[in-house]
Write a structure and sequence with these properties.
About 30% of the residues lie in helices and about 0% in strands. It has one helix at about 1-20. The radius of gyration is 28 Å and the shape is flat. Keywords: Signal.
C-alpha cells in the first residue's frame, strides 16, 4: 500500500509540475474539412494476400 501511495504522489507531482510549466495555448488551428469528392465504389482497390487461402475445416476427423 505504501508503494502505491508513493507512486501516486510522484505521478501527481510530475503532472502538476508539467501543468505549471506548460505554455499558454495559442490560437486554435483552423478546422479541417474533408473533401467533398465522390467515391467510385466500382473501382476495385488492389489488395495483396499473403499466405494460403482460408479453407474452413468442415470435417475435423479428416485431414
Amino acid at each position: 500500500m505504501f508503494l502505491l501511495a508513493t507512486v501516486t504522489l510522484c505521478c501527481v507531482a510530475v503532472a502538476g509540475t508539467v501543468a505549471l510549466f506548460k505554455l499558454a495555448p495559442g490560437p486554435a488551428p483552423a478546422t479541417q474539412v474533408a473533401e467533398r469528392a465522390a467515391i467510385d465504389v466500382t473501382a476495385p482497390t488492389p489488395v495483396r494476400v499473403v499466405g494460403a487461402p482460408f479453407e474452413p475445416n468442415i470435417n475435423p476427423r479428416e485431414r
